[in-house]
Amino acid sequence: MEKWIQEHIKDAELKFGLDNYRFKTFSLHRDINTLKETVYTLSLEWLPGNASTLNEGEDEGTNPPGTAVISIDLNTKRYSSVIFVQGQSDAGEGGVVFDIKDEEGIVQWIESETGLTYGKHFEGDSKRNDKIGFNFKSMYKAIRTAPSGSINIEFDEAGKLVFFSVIGSFPSDETIIEESYRLTFKDVEPSIFKRLTLTEIPVDDKKQWVPVYALDEFYFTQSDGAIIPIEVLMKDRHIYIPVNRLLEWEGSLENDFESKPIFVAETITTEQVITKEQHPELAPIEESEIESCMDSVVTYMRKAYSEQSGEWVLVSLYRSRGYIYAELRRSAQDNRILKRKLQIIMDSSSFEVVNTMDSEFFLKMFEGYESAVPVVVEHEEAYAKLIDHMVIEPAYVYDNVSGKYRLCGRVDCNYCVDAITGEVVELNSLR
Fold first, then answer.
1. Tens digits of per-residue pLDDT, 74-114?
2. pTM of the entire predicted model
């Protein structure tokens, strides 16, 4: 075991009072953060002293209650998560204990552990769970940030720390393009009008597709009026390469495709950590690789979807766990909120198609739903009814091009207009 790993083990044992614990194992992991940086993590595990053997609980694939699992972000040398299994801590007197009524003291501890400042980088979240603890969310000087970050902390009844996690992004001062917020509704109104769309939502109670006018959340950049759709921010940390090519072919091929299992586990070595090896998913997909992917995708489609030439578009490509994923959608789109999608997974070296995922199976759940009836309400009427329900508020949004957070207006609406009755209803009420 490397000396630096031993030092992390000793530091954690001292900080969290693990005198009554026995060290079990460690593992190394890596991921990509919002800033497209490779982040290495050291995960450590200890078994409580009352566990009879180091292997207790492993037969069922679970750790016994009280097991301590602690993760350290090796880039920042800060703790990213502390978990005592099933909320049970056997930590000694030297562990982390709080007065659970002293929120100020708890916040100060979080500030010390994260290097963040309450009221500047994070604030209390109104969401609460049924456990003893506090939830916090990312912000910058009282303005929300996107993608968001969260901090969660929980204790047992004695105030012992049993859970702590820092997830997502908390912008540093250096990554913020700070400016005064000056957007008005008039600035954003044309974009709202354009993006208010007619869509069909499956309503379970009626077993029917119901047409409504609704607005998808989006961000409007203050500096140049660009649109950042919410789906762009909701995508994970993969680097998506846009392709947007219609897939066409002539003739079919014998469908001899056999799906193979996908292996996503990755073994990280200490040498990779020490040398700070870049995450392989950050490697660009070169033009020659895009063409090879296109050839493989078309060959597969000629086998499995031979009669559907011209009916699919290759939207994008991205790397994940040693594979290249191709995302396809239907070329002809209807108004339904749930779209048919196809994912084709290829070996990143040979470009051989190894597995696929088609959302058709999921969409079959709605086959018995009655189709939507023709709409009665016009777009202009629906827009007029929703104006007072629109929410426009400032938000710092990460821009992949500049690598900075830009001030935007977050535009959202929790209501929609029934395109048949004209009634204004909450979106969440349509189930």
1. 999 999 999 999 999 999 888 999 998 999 999 999 999 99
2. 0.88
**Cα gap 93→365, rounded to integer Å:** 54
Residue that has been written with the tokens 């109670």 in this structure: 205
pLDDT of 401 over the 90 cut: no
Alpha helices, DSSP H, located in 88-237? 103-114, 185-195, 230-234
User: How far is it, in rounded angstroms, from Cα 278 to Cα 268?
Assistant: 12
Torsion of CA 102, 104, 109, 110, to 10 degrees: 120
Radius of gyration of the chain from its Cα atoms, rounded to whole angstroms = 26
Distance between CA atoms of residues 71 and 78, nearest Å: 9
In the chain, the amino acid numbered 272 is: Q
- Mapped onto helix, strand or coil, the DSSP state of residue 203 is strand
Q: Do 390 and 160 touch, CB atoms closer than 8 A?
A: no
Going by the DSSP 8-state scheme, the letter that residue 265 receives in this structure is: -
264-303 tens-digit pLDDT? 888 999 999 999 999 999 999 999 999 999 999 999 999 9
**Is pLDDT above 50 for 324?**
yes
Which residues, in sequence order, are bridge partners of residue 138? 122
Beta strands in 321-419 (DSSP E): 323-330, 341-347, 353-358, 391-399, 404-412, 415-418
Q: Which amino acid is at 86?
A: Q
Q: Under DSSP, is residue 43 helix (H, G, I), strand (E, B) or coil? A: strand
User: What SS3 state is found at 91?
Assistant: coil
CA–CA dist 23, 18 (Å, integer): 9
Euclidean distance between CA atoms 320 and 357, whole angstroms: 15
